[in-house]
Amino acid sequence: MSKRIALDHPELKHPTTKRAKQIDADLPYDHLVEALEAQSEKKEVLKVAHWFHEKDLRIHDNKSLHHGSELAKKAKKHLICCYVNCPADEAWHGTSAARVDFNLEGLALMQKELKELNIPLVFLHADERREVVPTVVKFLKENGVSHVFSNYEYEIDEIRRDIKFLKEVGDDIRVSMHHDQTVVEPGTMTTGAGKPMKVFTPYHRMWLGIVKDDPDLLNTLPPPTKNDASPSKELKSLFDSPVPKAPKDKEFASAEDKKRIRKLWPSGHAAGFKRMDSFLSQISNYAATRSNPAKNSTSRMSAYFSAGMVSIREALSKVQKYNDGSSDFTESGASPGVYSWVREIVFRELYRQTTLTTPHTSMNLPQNLKFDFVQWEDDEGGWEKWYKGETGEPFIDAGMRQLNTEAYMHNRLRMNVSSYLYCNLLIDYRRGERYFAETLIDWDLSNNTQGWEPSYTVFNPVSQAEKNDPNGDYIRKWVPELKDVKGKAIFAPYARLSKEEFEKLGYPKPHVDWKETKQRAIERFKSDMRDASP
Ligand SMILES: Cc1cc2nc3c(=O)[nH]c(=O)nc-3n(C[C@H](O)[C@H](O)[C@H](O)COP(=O)(O)OP(=O)(O)OC[C@H]3O[C@@H](n4cnc5c(N)ncnc54)[C@H](O)[C@@H]3O)c2cc1C
User: Fold this and answer.
1) Which of 30, 158, 275, 502 has its CA 20 to 30 A from that of 519?
2) Tens of pLDDT along 216-244?
3) In 76-189, which ranges are continuous DSSP H helix?
4) Whole-prediction pTM
5) Nearest C-alpha to atom 39 of ligand 1 is from which residue?
6) Does the predicted interface ipTM exceed a cut of 0.95?
């Protein structure tokens, strides 16, 4: 049904729902595991490599890097590292300029840290996505690597890339992969009927039980062991690999943008750790204030987790220390702040399990495939107002302006602006999902696609603002046209001020009537999905 969308927005192309179901029924991940298990033993270790991806950009507590290092140490061989810079991959995913810069800065820091350990980090280049695998294979073979390690990525393209990688290295190189992104391995939490769990509440309950009973899941691993001094000579050229530059289309729009974003989001493991420590000093306020965007009391760790600059085990082992050394993060075992923060981490864990076990969710299709049958509106005016933060709904506009300025948006706003786009404007939710990818510093396919999963819940931006931003401080900060509006008029100035008062503000009137469009959305969803058979 989405032909019109596919034509207008090629980046939103997706397979048919029938094809999606076939893919779900024959998990690419299972094929990857089979291919890994089918490898022949390779006893002789020549050189060991770790292949970094965009989600494990740290040398501390990096599972695959650690295991690679252990093998190299045992065999008294050298460890080398590589990373493939592929601008076409960033263009495909729509990665934001802020995120590209964050990653590149992080890679530069890692290269220095690794050099101190006599371990080279080599930047390879692939113009096209299909060149990534041959580029790495060529590099490994040319450098006499016998064993290569990398961490799993759970998105379908990345799983397919790794299957292709295994095929291309053949028997020449032994590949080992590790689960690094989560505390509990994705895919392993199943229902009584043996199916992967998809519903949050039972998943959360079971996850808390597993971690309480097995605190070792939070153990962290040390950085790799230093190579002996000889690789500096033998592999001299590998140490001179220049850090890639951002492609032209991923540069910041201005020097001012770059300065602001780098100040807000200093890259690297040390900066992430510092942020986590400072968050812990105020975690006791988290439960009470996390939904109030003006309080800014959430951790802002998402960018560090998405790029893997801080591991989730590192963060949770800090929380565990704070929790008197206990990994009991249940409501009765932890303070309200710790309980609620860990609960958010569990959403992140579930979403990785969903990406792995429902691969169509990383192919521009909703988890509930019926939503692909909804006929969306072409409201270009509404779209432009939405992304610029000029819809005339103060809470929505504040959220979008925060996003455009900080490359970040508070979770409460993400919920509201997404609902407003696909319910009140009836614009295909995938356009918003893509806009988030193109703008956020913390873009993460699993969290973003699950966050954008359409539903019948239509958020009311006025009551949401009244409840979560009761003094209107967040709105005043981001929508300066309204900074002098007093009382409850701040939440709905067009409806609550006189015509003259409103006109003086220089603020747009609402693009749509919320009540009418709520009704329109519910009717549209019902009628378009009634007979849908994905
Ligand atoms: C429409 C929509 C799109 C989103 N897109 C992204 C995205 O691209 N990247 C991203 O990391 N998060 C995304 N989220 C989830 C959430 O909004 C952010 O993780 C959170 O706002 C980050 O701020 P924080 O680090 O201060 O969070 P905290 O409140 O401090 O939470 C701690 C960590 O838990 C995880 N987390 C928190 N809330 C959620 C959630 N709802 N779902 C999954 N994990 C969560 C994050 O890793 C976060 O850093 C999205 C949510 C929605 C509704």
Assistant:
1) 502
2) 999 999 999 999 987 667 788 899 899 99
3) 87-93, 97-116, 132-142, 156-169
4) 0.97
5) 344
6) yes
